[in-house]
Specification:
Elements lengths: L1 H18 L5 E6 L8 E5 L10 E6 L2 E11 L13 E2 L7 H14 L3 H8 L14 E5 L9 H10 L7 H8 L3 H9 L3 E5 L20 H15 L4 E7 L5 H14 L3 E5 L3 H15 L4 E3 L5 H13 L4 E4 L11 E7 L16 H12 L2 E6 L4 H8 L4 E5 L10 E6 H4 L9 H12 L3 E5 L8 E4 L16 E3 L4 E3 L6 E3 L13 E4 L3 H11 L5 E4 L1 H4 L3 H11 L5 E4 L12 E6 L13 H13 L10 E6 L5 H8 L2 H14 L6 E10 L2 H13 L7 E14 L2 E11 L4 H10 L9 E6 L6
Parallel strand pairs: 8-13, 8-14, 9-11, 9-12, 10-11, 12-13, 15-25, 16-23, 16-24, 22-23, 24-25
Antiparallel strand pairs: 1-2, 1-4, 3-4, 3-5, 6-7, 17-21, 18-19, 19-20, 26-28, 26-29, 27-28
The protein binds adenosine-5'-triphosphate (ATP) and zinc ion (ZN).
Length: 744
């Protein structure tokens, strides 16, 4: 049977060859659209095309850039196919890069084209070959009339150097219209400007800081891992302020010395900013930067440089993982535990995990750095899959901050305020000593809930099952799930009472107001993504804090990690509990990590630090471990309870969210899916159940959860299952999330 099919195919191919002359070659082209399979195109005669080439093809009516994928073109009549329009003049996708895209698609169940789209970012904006820039040069011809301004201009140009119009007008101190006049009279003449000097390359031979004995040992091990030119993963597990950055920079130096490339991933754009300067201090030049706030031109330049090998070091947000490196030697995943590495929409991938996959395909080294490693990574170390290097003490013999809990049930703040007396006292002392304090609350805006004092009406998002968050800074009520935003009304929309709407609970803006009232004259800064953005403003603010121009920093999780403010000695966590109860198997781990990171900002300079944590549950294991400084104890207990519950990494999870215009439709489809779930040993399917966020953007949501033993092909199971699913009609949509981080 199989034999005759093969023979048939062979015969068909033969017929094709005989019936058409000349035979056109066909190729498979993967396109950046929601298709899993490449499409087949004919190759025009004379065009030399190999897998990995970037090509332009007609797709519908639009020319689209795609990538020639592996495999023979299908055995179809090439003459009936559309031919591809041409090759793009850019470095193609290497075989490892193509394998990586295939791998991510298979694992996440995203269509391959959708993964490709991430890897083509920065290409569409390619500015093309640089236009020659034109400047001005003196010709030696004397103008008819010589004014003092003209004299100045000609004197400045007398050296014969070609300068841009702007540069010449500045050098001479005359307006550009003077120069135009001289051009008109032939005394100045347009001429091509010399090309700008190439950007300075980071120099790995510059001396780094003198490392401590432990740091040096770790640095040596990481250098060896990079030099081995083989796949490896190393957890760099060092307490806050132990100098992990200095240590992994040595691994970067090793990659650069070999003329190869390094990628440093950071979970937040805010963290890339101080890193640029630290990198420049170490290597004499800044690395390339890749994230959403980099403009189109900048992105195109980074992408091109990464592909041709001229860009050696890139610091990037998670999407940098899909850049087409020419010779990738090292990926550093800084703050590897961070949930921001997980992309929730579109292709649901975890950049930390996919960094390991990419490194395996490219024979590269991975460094996972964290003061609070994920349980997943720790277990991989215990199983011998990853290596581990430990930095158990802060650099320079500095002490870890002393951490205490404030029991909000007994010694909490007076009604209507959020800072407990002990917190106020500690901040006052800190300011009196000329030091900085950080108040941490992981809630943006002013108040998480607004209600009417008269009728009790609560301000809800019209599109989501969520409260609107008051942002006083923007004078509006905002939904943090869909972005809906409207001016804060003067009257209650339900009972029309005037001035009856009140904010309940605190966000960072409210803490800022309270701090301003309590600590008169203190210079206070709010660090929160919606207030600061991610650009120059944030950079300036971080620098002002570092220089000591700010007394109190009030911030969301944006400030919890990575930053190094030497004069900051006190950290107060306003509400340690709010994440503890969440319907999330990682709730305890996450809370521990967040609080350990934020308290770790205290006392990183000469002066010792301390931290206070406001909690309603001081006996909770997380709080007790933080106060006792018993990191290992917490991890042991948490790992054991995860194992008992068969939760990751001891079991696998996948979430399926079904959304639809109505709750009934979502539920019906959820039930239909659950009914046809394959009965396989070692896996069970839970749900459908209404999602905690039951409505987002006007769409009702229900969830299914698949839970399996550890050694189980979850993507394969999901593919079989969903492949047999009834078609999603009536606006039903299905989103699959393998290894979910969010359970909302
Ligand atoms: N060997 C060294 N010589 C001089 N300074 C050092 C050295 N090691 C670390 N430092 C300094 O100590 C501070 C803390 O180091 P770093 O920021 O690398 O710590 P970290 O382990 O990354 O901390 P966190 O996990 O909290 O981000 C930095 O200012 C760094 O420059
Ligand atoms: Zn909303």
């Amino acid at each position: 049977m199989a034999r005759s099919t093969a023979e048939d195919a062979g015969r068909r191919r033969q017929e094709r060859i005989e019936s058409r002359l000349p035979v056109l070659k066909t190729v498979e082209v993967l396109l950046p659209v929601a298709l899993d399979r490449p499409l087949t195109y004919a190759v025009p005669e004379g065009l030399d095309i190999v897998p990995g080439d970037l090509v332009v093809v007609p797709l519908g009516t639009r020319p689209t850039v795609g990538v020639v994928w592996d495999g023979e073109g299908a055995a179809v009549d090439a003459a009936k196919l559309k031919p591809l329009s041409g090759k793009v003049d850019a470095a193609g996708f290497s075989k490892p890069m193509r394998s990586f895209i295939d791998w991510v698609a298979v694992y996440t169940l995203a269509p391959r084209g959708q993964v490709l789209r991430m890897a083509l970012r920065g290409l569409a904006e390619d500015p093309g070959p640089p236009q020659p820039r034109i400047g001005l040069r003196a010709t030696g011809v004397a103008p008819k009339r010589l004014t003092p301004a003209r004299e100045k201009a000609l004197a400045a140009a007398s050296d014969g150097v070609v300068r841009s119009k702007k540069a010449l007008s500045e050098a001479a101190g005359v307006s550009t219209s003077v120069l135009d006049g001289l051009v008109a009279e032939g005394a100045l003449q347009p001429a091509p400007l010399p090309p700008p000097p190439p950007p300075r390359q980071p120099d790995p031979d510059l001396p780094g800081p003198e490392l401590s004995v432990e740091q040096a040992a770790s640095a040596r091990a990481l250098r060896e891992a990079v030099a081995a030119r083989a796949f490896s993963v190393t957890l760099l597990d060092g307490v806050t302020g132990s100098g992990k950055t200095e240590v992994y920079c040595e691994a970067v130096a090793e990659a650069l010395s070999a003329g190869r490339q390094a990628l440093i991933l950071a979970p937040e754009i805010a963290l890339t900013i101080p890193f640029l300067d630290r990198f420049a201090k170490r290597f004499g030049a800044r690395p390339a930067v890749w994230h959403a706030s980099v403009g189109e031109k900048g992105r195109a330049a980074v992408r091109a440089g990464v592909a041709d090998g001229s860009v050696r070091a890139v610091v990037a947000a998670r999407s940098g993982l899909f850049l087409p490196f020419k010779d990738l030697a090292l990926i550093v995943v800084d703050e590897e535990h961070d949930a921001a590495y997980k992309q929730e929409d579109g292709v649901a991938y975890n950049a930390r995990d996919m960094a390991v996959v990419r490194a395996r395909i490219e024979d590269a080294a991975v460094v996972l750095a964290s003061a609070t490693p994920s349980i997943e990574t720790r277990v991989n170390v215990e199983r011998g899959r990853y290596d581990k290097l430990a930095l158990p003490a802060r650099f320079g013999g500095r002490a870890m901050p002393a951490v205490q809990a404030i029991d909000m049930r007994r010694v909490g703040p007076p009604r209507g305020s959020w800072l407990a007396p002990a917190m106020v006292h500690a901040v006052t002392e800190t300011l009196a000593a000329g030091q900085q304090a950080l108040l941490f609350l992981n809630r943006r805006g002013y108040a998480p809930l607004t209600l009417c004092r008269r009728c009790g009406h609560r301000m809800k998002c019209p599109n989501c099952s969520a409260w609107l968050v008051e942002h006083r800074f923007r004078a509006s009520l905002v939904c943090h799930h869909c972005g809906h935003s409207a001016p804060t009304p003067k009257t209650c929309p339900a009972c029309a009472a005037e001035d009856a709407l009140v904010g309940c609970g605190p966000g960072v803006e409210r803490i800022r107001d309270e701090a301003a009232e309590r600590f008169l004259g203190a210079r206070i800064s709010i660090l929160s993504s919606d207030v600061m953005g991610a650009g120059e403003r944030l950079k300036a603010e971080l620098e002002a804090i570092e220089r000591g121009e700010i007394d109190i920093v009030v911030g969301t999780q944006m400030v919890t990690k990575g930053h190094h403010f030497p004069n900051l000695t006190f950290v107060g966590a306003i509400d340690a509990d709010f994440a503890l109860g969440a319907a999330d198997p990682r709730a305890a781990e996450r809370t521990f990590q967040m609080l350990q990171q934020v308290t770790g900002r205290a006392g990183r300079g000469e002066k010792p630090g301390r931290a206070l944590i406001q909690t309603h549950d001081p006996d909770h294991a997380v709080i007790r471990a933080l106060v006792a400084g018993d990191r290992e104890g917490f991890y042991r207990a948490e790992t054991a309870s995860r194992e008992a519950a068969m939760m990751p990494p001891f079991g696998r999870l996948a979430g399926i969210v079904i959304s639809a215009p109505t709750k009934e439709a979502a539920e019906a489809h959820g039930r239909a899916l659950a009914r046809i779930a394959p009965k396989v040993e070692g896996v069970r399917v839970l749900g459908p159940a209404e999602a905690p966020l039951a409505m987002v953007r006007g769409r009702a949501r229900v969830r299914l959860l698949a839970q399996s033993v550890r050694d189980f092909d979850m993507p394969g199971f999901l593919r079989d299952w969903l492949g047999a699913a009834p078609p999603a009609r009536g606006g039903v949509r299905i989103a699959v999330d393998v290894d979910p981080q969010s359970f909302m």
